[in-house]
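Sat 14:20. Reprocessing the chain from the morning session after the first attempt stalled halfway. Input below, unchanged.
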Amino acid sequence: MALAGLAALSLVLGSRQLGGFQPLELKFYDFMVQRQSGSAPDPRLLIVEITEADLRQLHARRPLTKRSPRRSQFCSAISPASLG
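Finished this time. Tokens:
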């Protein structure tokens, strides 16, 4: 009896170590994330989309980059904690 338990434990731990349960774990994670998607978004987050049409309207000649001073000026009005 103890030998069968040890064999089963070895099989489970070996499969887990080799990634045998990863597809099942990922499907469960996706299920849990989708289940929580009905909750209200975090009110502290604001997502701002800047499209090419917005840039044309602002007479920008090239897209804003992470290091662009125009990007900082464009977003500084709302004083964000971080930009990404």
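The first helix runs from residue 2 to 17.
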